[in-house]
Amino acid sequence: MRVVILAFSVISSIVSCTLDKQAKALRTLEKCRYEFVSADSIFLAGTDVNKLIANGRVDVSQLPGVALGFLSRDIPLSGVLNVRITNPTNNLAGIQQFAYKVEVEGREVLDGVSDLPIEVPAGETVVVPVKLRTNVYKFLSDRETLDKLLTFIQRTHNGATDEKVNLTFKIKPTLALGNQAINYPGYIDIDKEVDAEFLIKHGIIR
């Protein structure tokens, strides 16, 4: 019986220590500063989105992969969002896994889960690549939000410099307890106002 009690105590201590360490790193992550840097290798139903925009083509509904996706209600989007994270504290910041959402003008356009761990050492800045892989059928079916985004891209491509759109990247961290996942109660928001200068700087339009 003493052996059982001792074993239980050891396991409880390990679990408690693991959760405390994750919670501390998460609390530090909340104090970090975030900046959306760029979006790379964005493919919609197998087509390079950056090339579409650079060529002035914004009517994605005519793409073969998208047209078929509307029939199956499955339109895959993949890519990488690069986020710069600055840790101003004296503690390690990080998470093992997180859910994310991307919003355009407050309207959700995609969501997913990233299992790529994030670690930001004390006093340092790192650029974290967040891999996207999601179904955007719901977003492409939302004509109001889609039209607003496409109008912004088209006007910017035609030379308008006063056009802007607000993007929000939301992170919901997860604490790992063995095979169990404990979800953080809220989201960490990363806001970015995108304008023509940003699109030109990153080669999205020319």
Helicity, as a percent range: 25-40%
Computed CA radius of gyration, to the nearest angstrom = 21 Å
> Quaternary status of these chains?
single chain
Strand content: 35-45%
Overall geometry: globular
The H-and-E topology, N to C, reads as HEEHHEEEEEEHHEEEH
In whole angstroms, how far apart are the ends?
74 Å
Total E-strand runs: 11
Overall average pLDDT: 75
Poorly predicted regions: 1-19
Could you please describe the fold and organization of this structure?
This protein is 34% helix and 41% strand. With 206 residues, it is an alpha+beta fold. The protein has one domain. Strands 5, 6, 9, 10 and 11 form a five-stranded antiparallel sheet that branches. The protein has a four-stranded antiparallel sheet with strand order 2-1-3-8. The radius of gyration is 21 Å and the shape is globular. Residues 1-19 have low confidence and may be disordered.
Salient structural properties:
about 210 residues, alpha+beta, five-stranded antiparallel beta sheet, four-stranded antiparallel beta sheet, 11 strands, globular
